[in-house]
Amino acid sequence: MSTIVADGATAGGPARLPPIGAAPGPGLRLRTIPEATVARLTAYLRVLDRCAMVGAELRGDGTISSDELAGLVGVNPAKLRKDLSYLGSHGTRGVGYDAAALRSTLQQALGAHETYPVAVVGVGHLGSALAAYPGFPARGFPVRALFDTDPLKIGRPVAGITVSDIREAALVCRREDVVIGVIATPEPAAQRVADVLVAAGVRSILGFAPGQLTVPADVEVRRVDLALELQLLAFHEIRRGDVAAPRQAVP
Amino acid sequence: MSTIVADGATAGGPARLPPIGAAPGPGLRLRTIPEATVARLTAYLRVLDRCAMVGAELRGDGTISSDELAGLVGVNPAKLRKDLSYLGSHGTRGVGYDAAALRSTLQQALGAHETYPVAVVGVGHLGSALAAYPGFPARGFPVRALFDTDPLKIGRPVAGITVSDIREAALVCRREDVVIGVIATPEPAAQRVADVLVAAGVRSILGFAPGQLTVPADVEVRRVDLALELQLLAFHEIRRGDVAAPRQAVP
DNA sequence: GTATGTGAATGGGTTCACAGCC
DNA sequence: GGCTGTGAACCCATTCACATAC
Questions:
Q1: Closest by Cβ to B25, choosing from A108, A204, A245
Q2: Residue A173: is its pLDDT beyond 50?
Q3: CB–CB contact A125 B133 (8 Å)
Q4: What is the predicted pLDDT for the residue at B6?
Q5: Is A250 inside a domain boundary?
Q6: Nucleotide nearest to A32 in CA–C1' terms
Q7: What CA–CA distance (Å, rounded) separates A243 from A236?
């Protein structure tokens, strides 16, 4: 399912959307952007951030071409241009993109200026690691609450955050403005936890347990299945014939 | 010489499945199977495993219909049938699939009877959690080696495995028959670690660091970008307008 | 009647190639 | 000259609908 975002210019597309006259909110127009594109936009922003910090990798005049940026990110230049065109972002033909302006546009479109407090449910090995994962706060996702059911864990600090009883989820999530819930519990508890998070008002969930989660339609769920990733790698091994077939099971 | 760049996106990657002629096992026809299908096949197998253990959820005669199985997994029945058709798996029209036979077919196709030893590089919070993650050995991926560069960690046991010096990667990987390498280091070290793993003979890599990894063409890389998952969830929040309106912008 | 297997239709996303502008 | 922006072609994946088989 694809989606939407801010835009200023009318880009290509089968049916060109009429320029929205009276924008509802403050100043942002909406168009649909493929999710795959959104994922890459964050990569572009990340690289531009790094360039901005290092102050290098772009030319003296502060511009960068689609070829250069695409090379840094590792994608096809045409894809990058099409991605950026969804934002109506204007580069300069014959020159490239103004790095600072592009960075600002991306930040705006991705909401990178905002902060999205996160709650992690399940303070086992994985949950603890996520609580301490530096990449989350670094990209605007501070972990502000930890939940568990284990009385031995509740009340104790993990990665600087006191573990709360899952039964207080509604209270704590409201207090901490939690926007995203992460489920790092064993599989059997995952659905129950999802229900609790939804009841607590969380409408975005990242789950690490395999198996489906049933949630209301207005709740967005993403799943990361770590074992599945290994399985897909293993499948390539099989296909290569690398793994010595131990037993020959032939029907 | 030819190198390939690991493509970033979580879902979007073009499943390149070259119709390599290396005839695999006899009897099993491994044509090109879409990667998305492979992912779902593992889900089907997982559900069938659970049914087999519980002994329930399937009818007295040991059959299960595409509607039933699809319902349990949470996918479209037509999709399930098409997925299974890639395996040439024969159900019985008017009846359904023999659960035991289907399970066996899936195990065979996915190599689920095999074991794929894993090495985790980077014994920080995340690496330690992965070393202890029960889902890995449960699905045939025992973690057999841990690597780090920190002298304080080397030689000490984590999750029952002694941490080795990364400089001994080649030796240890060969000794432990490591097939898959997992990179759980901070971002700056990721590329170096990938090089080391490749030199050690590992041809399947799962990376948790954002940013691209450059590896030889015969090495398969998958990436899990945890912060990106949150970013995509956040994007949906923005689209919904849930998050307090981003401050006015747009020149 | 019931449920599979599969061509056909649909839709999303990537790549190509070139028109348009600097 | 160089580089962006974008229609069009292409490819992969999902969904539909129905002929086929039990």
A1: A245
A2: yes
A3: yes
A4: 40
A5: no
A6: C12
A7: 10
3-state secondary structure chain B: CCEEECCCCCCCCCCCCCCCCCCCCCCCCCCCCCHHHHHHHHHHHHHHHHHHHHCCCCCCCCEECHHHHHHHHCCCHHHHHHHHHCCCCCCECCCEEEHHHHHHHHHHHHCCCCCCCEEEECCCHHHHHHHHCCHHHHCCCCEEEEEECCCCCCCCEECCEEEEEHHHHHHHHHHCCCCEEEECCCHHHHHHHHHHHHHCCCCEEEECCCCCCEEECCCEEEECCHHHHHHHHHHHHHHHCCCCCCCCCCC
Q: Which pLDDT does position B19 carry in this prediction?
A: 33
Q: Which structural domain, as residue segments, surrounds residue A77?
A: 3-110
A148/C13 CA-to-C1' distance in Å: 40
| In a shared domain, residues A105 and A187 | no
Is residue B58 predicted with pLDDT exceeding 80? no
Question: What is the predicted pLDDT for the residue at A56?
Answer: 60
B82 CB-to-strand C distance under 7 Å = yes
Tell whether A20 and A93 lie within a shared domain.
Answer: yes
pLDDT digit string, tens, across residues B92-119: 999 999 999 999 999 999 999 999 999 9
Do A76 and A140 fall into the same domain? no
pTM for the model: 0.86
pLDDT in tens, B199-239: 999 999 999 999 889 999 999 999 999 999 999 999 999 88
Q: Residue with structure tokens 């901070």?
A: B186
